[in-house]
What we know:
Elements: E1 3-4, H1 29-34, E2 44-50, E3 53-60, E4 66-71, H2 84-89, E5 93-98, E6 108-109, H3 114-125, E7 133-138, H4 140-151, E8 156-162, H5 176-197, H6 207-215, H7 223-233, E9 234-237, E10 240-243, H8 259-265, E11 273-278, H9 290-293, E12 302-306, H10 313-316, H11 318-332
Parallel strand pairs: 4-5, 4-7, 7-8, 8-11, 11-12
Antiparallel strand pairs: 1-6, 2-3, 3-5, 9-10
Helix pairs in contact: 4-8, 6-7
Amino acid sequence: xxxxxxxxxxxxxxxxxxxxxxxxxxxxxxxxxxxxxxxxxxxxxxxxxxxxxxxxxxxxxxxxxxxxxxxxxxxxxxxxxxxxxxxxxxxxxxxxxxxxxxxxxxxxxxxxxxxxxxxxxxxxxxxxxxxxxxxxxxxxxxxxxxxxxxxxxxxxxxxxxxxxxxxxxxxxxxxxxxxxxxxxxxxxxxxxxxxxxxxxxxxxxxxxxxxxxxxxxxxxxxxxxxxxxxxxxxxxxxxxxxxxxxxxxxxxxxxxxxxxxxxxxxxxxxxxxxxxxxxxxxxxxxxxxxxxxxxxxxxxxxxxxxxxxxxxxxxxxxxxxxxxxxxxxxxxxxx
Length: 335
C-alpha cells in the first residue's frame, strides 16, 4: 500500500474552526475569507482511490454540466482556484480539480514521482466519462497536461497551458556515463531527504506567519491573498497552523522526466492548444522566455506572452485568464 497517514485525510475543513482564539490583532479565519467575497469553496468533494492513495477531488458548478479539468501546480492546492474556478463555472462548465497526492486533503503516500502524478490524473479523468474535455494545467500541472495530451489525445478537446512550459531548466548535454552519475547523486539526495524528514512534521506558525513564509515564494501575490490561502491550504492544531503538504515532499524529484522534455512534446499535440506565459519572473516560475516556446508550437496553436502578470496569472488576474480560456474554447470548438 502506498498510503501514509495524514490528519483527516480526504476531508474538506468545513469552516476550519480555530482551535483557540487568535492572537490579539490577528485576523480570524472568517475575517480573512470575507476579504475575498468572490472566492467560493468547492460545491462538491469526493475521494478517488488511486491504487490505495485517496485523491481528494473537488468541483465547482452544476453537477450535470460539461466537465473541464484544471490541474494545479507543485506545492499548491485545488482550492487556490477558489476565485478562478467559479468564473469558469459561471459560463456553464463543471470545473473539476484535485489535490495532488501529498497535497491538501489528498492522502500522503510512500511514493511521489512524475509517473504517480500522471496515474492519479488518469484516475480522476476516468471518473468524468469518455468524451474529450478541455484540460487546463498551471505550472507543473501544465507540464503534466502536455504529457497526458501526447499520450491520450482522444481525451482532450482543448489543452490550455498556464505558465507550464518549463524549458528554462534544461539539463546539459553530457555523456551517458555522466548522466548515470548525475542520476545517482539525485537518488542519494532524495533518499537522504526521506530519511531526514521521515518522522518530522511541518513547522507550525500563526496564520500570518505561514502567509509571510509563502510570500517568499509567491512575492507577487498580496499578503491578504496569502492569508486566505492559509485558511484553505493549512490546518490548525494546538500549536499553530501547518501547511497541508507532506513534509517528505520536495521540489524536483527523480525518475525518467526532465523539465525540458515537456517542450519537446508540444509539436506533436493534435488538439487545439493555447499556451500563456507570464513575463514577470518569480521564484516559483520556470524562467521560460517567449523565444523558448515559439519554435515548438504545433500548427494552429495560440500563444500569448502576457505583460504585467507572473507565474500565478490565474490568481493575479482571474477574470482576464478565465475569459481568455472561455473565448479560446468557443472559437476553436468543433461543431
